[in-house]
Amino acid sequence: MKAGGEAPVPVLRAAFRSRCPRCGTGKLYDGFLKVAAVCQTCGLNLGAQDSGDGPVAFIVLIVGAIVVGLALWTEVTFSPPMWVHALLWPPLIIVLSLFMMRFAKSLLIALQFKHRAEDYDAT
Prior knowledge:
This protein is mainly alpha-helical. The chain has helices spanning about 10-15, 55-80, 80-115. The chain starts with 10 loop residues before the first helix and ends in an 8-residue tail after the last helix.
């Protein structure tokens, strides 16, 4: 429970809005993908909430499956020249990766906070 007896912030709401997992109002990021040191609203030490490389593995697999599927469908349906593929897919890969990474990092940080992963580091 948060201070004052309020219910905790739902994990998906905090992740979609990129907000502090404790108060739900402070910004989670100081920049596009750099996690803020502390929450400006509640003072939670966000620097301790490290997502590591966890989101990257999922994003590579998801974006790879999407782009390969679309590229195969495009090739079979339209048979474009190779230069069309070279121009079409790299921007899509970059955009999908960046925006999915922001959500995935937010989600993992919110889940770590919810399940108090830092409490289990002392064993």
